[in-house]
Amino acid sequence: METSATPTHCPYCALQCGMNLTPAPDGTVEVTERADFPVNRGALCGKGRTAPAVLSSRVRLTSPLVRTDGVLTPASWDEALDRIAGRLSSIRSAHGPDAVGVFGGGGLTNEKAYTLGKFARVVLGTSQIDYNGRFCMSSAAAAGTKAFGLDRGLPFPLEDIPKTGCVVLVGSNLAETMPPALRYLTELKDNGGTLIVVDPRRTRTAEQADLHLAPRPGTDLALALGLLHLVVAEGRTDEEYIRERTTGWEDARAAAMAHWPEYVERITGVSVPELREAVRLFCEPEAAMVLTARGPEQQSKGTDTVGAWINLCLATGRAGRPLSGYGCLTGQGNGQGGREHGQKADQLPGYRKLTDPAARRHVAEVWGVEPDSLPGPGRSAYELLDALGTDIRALLLMGSNPVVSAPRAAHVEERVKALDFLAVCDVVLSETAELADVVLPVTQWAEETGTTTSLEGRVLLRRQAISPPTGVRSDLEVMHELAARLGVEKGFPTDPEEVFEELRRASAGGPADYSGITYRRLARENGVFWPCPAPAEGGPAAGSAGESAPAVPSADAALGAGGPDAAASGGTAPDVHPGTPRLFLDRFATEDGRARFAPVSHRAVAEEPDAEYPVLLTTGRVVAQYQSGAQTRRVDELNAAAPGPFVELHPRLAERLGAAEGDPVAVVSRRGRAVAPARITTAIRPDTVFMPFHWPGEGRANTLTNPALDPTSRMPEFKACAVRLEAVQPQASPA
Ligand SMILES: Nc1nc2c(c(=O)[nH]1)N[C@H]1C(S)=C(S)[C@@H](COP(=O)(O)OP(=O)(O)OC[C@H]3O[C@@H](n4cnc5c(=O)[nH]c(N)nc54)[C@H](O)[C@@H]3O)O[C@H]1N2
Ligand SMILES: Nc1nc2c(c(=O)[nH]1)N[C@H]1C(S)=C(S)[C@@H](COP(=O)(O)OP(=O)(O)OC[C@H]3O[C@@H](n4cnc5c(=O)[nH]c(N)nc54)[C@H](O)[C@@H]3O)O[C@H]1N2
Ligand code: SF4
Ligand SMILES: [Mo]
């Protein structure tokens, strides 16, 4: 057997660390350092290092399962596929196409996400498709689109971070959620730059900060407005930039001026001197950045909140300029690409809008269907899950475990159980797959090739390194087989490169234009940043040579061909667009090229604490587990490091409760009750408790969370809901 190392990328988060995989003679796979990939330069976190454990047939599915007499029972592929196609088609005939729903995931490769969106619209004819990315960065995406006319998580590569003057990191615990990226912040400080971290908890990331602001959960909007108020009051605005490059300043300014520092201090708990210090650190250097993650975004006002942080960048001239800007740290492995190519309720490939007639015509032509046959926009993720068992009678689920990860999870679990039919494609028997009528075992990262788009907007080739075990098939094969059984013989290839070739055409001319990217290029270069249009017919792409004007207005001409990695990768052919590492330097992607201020004002969280539920619960992650834990809870080393849920609380709260370290504590919200051991620490605000959401069962954090949705992004309020704490008598251990 071939034992050479294959350069590829991690299956988990959006950093998409490079790694080498080598199959060992005993059937295991060895992960070794891949130093040529510039983003992580060989460094990996524990999850990436242990990822091959999930390839083992000890923990994964290797046979289709069909529910027979109430029990999931091994079955042949034909039996399982026939069952799915039969049920989907009879439910569609009885209740109409929208009675069949599809739920995807931001971990799926671009090829899978694209095919899933096409499958829903072309084969099933349903409008009811959305995905877990709605729970992830949708608020930042909505705010970015409003402000800049385009949403790409980071509009600059990570390598710019150490060179700026100040980074404000809002609600990101990078040290645990993307450990190799911490290096960029360390280098920033080594270079004399400063780091401000905004987090209700003094996290491992906050410990690195020059200034840590610890607002009450759900008050970032007030905080950002208070900072903008001070920027204006202290005369630190960049009037020329505001005049030349933005619109809407008057209204945004008026809204911010209503947020006096003392008022903001009362709302957030961040003192006026701290606010002033933050403004000084942010405004004094020549360049600065604001980066948000799930903290400020997973709120029922996440879009306005991110809008307020963008306002701060715009008012100070810190967007669309070298080493300055606003960025969102996308989360899942393909969180960026997964939101561009059509598994979102309102979207067509290339980040096109499903409601745009020109977009419908373009994509329908690529798909060989009539534009009118494409359904309109459907429900958002939580609304879709909430409709299961009522309007939506059948669901095809690929790449998510909502029974653990969706808000108000006990209700979602009930809705899933109320379905007439559930089919799940997964690599393991997740908690949601356990409820399915048919489970299909699929191939995963190291066993298949595909592309992902990292948090930098860098499209990457994740190469196959080993053969899949017998019994499993790829998601692309599943969709091909189901399409054929549902009467669509063509248009669902199983070869990822063939899918990518079609995706290129479907995305051509759209905001997320991949048409100039090929597998061959990706194999040669260390990723290509979109937009990357194809060369015009019969001539070289404008801008490709570095001396002519870029084809994309926002392309970074200063970088020249090939972007930051051109030297390392040997450069690109002269008739090839170099890709766009840095956006907006010349103009924003709006019609008039100007960025738009958001005229936003603070409002409370959907559920403020009261006498009955006096404490705020916020939720998030720990370094050793990933998401719903479906994959990482199957890895011994990770379980040893993070064996189960816990409730992080301040000593004052613990004392009032009479709870000691490790004692079980019940956390009760209007949605339900969860129990987990106390972890007592002064690193959290005394009015707030924190739970990670990686576990099912008694300690499931999402039993408690509030599905109050942001009106624009439809993001649920994972980061703030009202709870009360109750002491639980520890179970007497048997004598
Ligand atoms: N180990 C690990 N890494 C991961 C993942 C994982 O599950 N495990 N998931 C990946 C994915 S999909 C994502 S989206 C990213 C998420 O990456 P992060 O956004 O870094 O992760 P979270 O822990 O959800 O939230 C970050 C911080 O927000 C803080 N926070 C809570 N409420 C508020 C608030 O109201 N305001 C502010 N400013 N902060 C608040 C929390 O205390 C927490 O420290 O991580 C990716 N990487
Ligand atoms: N309380 C609370 N809840 C949260 C959050 C929070 O901060 N707090 N964060 C939210 C965020 S940001 C996110 S992204 C979601 C994530 O939550 P989920 O959507 O549940 O994400 P995962 O646990 O990654 O689930 C992915 C599933 O797909 C499977 N899988 C992996 N690769 C493939 C593949 O190639 N094909 C197929 N078919 N299956 C595959 C995995 O085994 C796993 O079962 O959770 C959200 N929920
Ligand atoms: S930081 Fe993210 S991409 Fe890198 S090894 Fe860890 S999980 Fe994988
Ligand atoms: Mo996420």
Automatic annotation (TrEMBL):
Domain 4Fe-4S Mo/W bis-MGD-type: start-end pairs: 3-59
Alphabetical list of InterPro entries matching this protein: Asp_de-COase-like_dom_sf, MoPterin_dinucl-bd_dom, Mopterin_OxRdtase, Mopterin_OxRdtase_4Fe-4S_dom, Prok_molybdopt-oxidoreductase
Residue ranges, compositional bias (Low complexity): 537-575
Domain of life of the source: Bacteria
Pfam families named among the record's database cross-references: Molybdop_Fe4S4, Molybdopterin, Molydop_binding
Keyword 4Fe-4S among UniProt keywords: yes
Protein name: Molybdopterin oxidoreductase family protein
Species of origin: Streptomyces cinereospinus
